[in-house]
Amino acid sequence: MSVRDLLVLGSASAxxxxxxxxxxxxxxxxxxxxxxxxxxxxxxxxxxxxAAANDVTWICVTHFHGxxxxxxxxxxxxxxxxxxxxxxxAAFPASGxxxxxxxxxxSVFRDTEVIRERPVSGEWMALDTGDAPFxxxxxxxxxxxxxxxxxxxxxxxxxxxxxxxxxRGVRGPLVRELQEHGRVTAPDGRTVTLEECSTRRPGQKVAxxxxxxxxxxxxxxxxxxxMLIIESTFLDEDAALAAEYGHLTAGQAGRVAKEGGVRHxxxxxxxxxxxxxxxxxxxxxxxxxxxxxVSLVHDLDRIPLPPRRVAKPxxxx
Length: 317
Prior knowledge:
By secondary structure, this protein is α/β, with parallel strands linked by helices. The protein has 9 helices and 18 strands. The strands form 4 sheets. Strands 6-5-4-3-2-1-18 form a 7-stranded mixed beta sheet. Strands 7-8-9-14-15-16-17 form a 7-stranded mixed beta sheet. A two-stranded antiparallel ribbon has the order 10-13.
């Protein structure tokens, strides 16, 4: 059975707290596992969450501040120790290559050859995902150091309409032929096209936006996604501080979600400056401007992707 969900391995910002570990997010997608920003302690958090090194097929680092990358050595060494056989692609800002190399080889261990480095550069870059059932792009953001957000997209598909097939006498092996070739000859000699018997099934989309000020890249990544995983380090009362340090507020995250037509907004990366009793304010500020589903995450939360969008069938022909 395919699984599409987000495992939250950590949700603090620069400083971990008793309740929140450094960053770490495992997006599970039909047998693939995209590990975003593994901060310190990620390996242990994965154990608590029931995830294994063998689940990881991508490591995506947004930038090289410690709370977003200090877990890389443990993850790489665990991949090696557990004998992970499949390739693990590692995306990270190309300008941070020296930091990646230090983290990748931080201590003595029996190395692995499955890690494939995918340095990211420029304003926008499409990553080679091979035969994976999704595309992955990186978009430059606005932070004091070079930082990128990531967007995963599933191609649109089709949903067959049984009543339309029945009306045209298309059944059994003819259905598969129709799906594969786009047209088929029905038993009565008519040519039946795929467009007549199907409707478009929108592919699911997820965006991952960490440390950044508001900028064009944030909106582009968030546009039309089913799930937006986004930092909300500060409350709106500290918006000036957020801008100074290159971060977002909860209210800004809500506005990004509203303007982008996001379905599920996931707030994370909370500053340690706020008290536990202030937590609800992050959700409240985002929900004041965004009317969709809002999740304020905690470590080890599992958040399923929203159900697929339903497209309206084409008019009968």
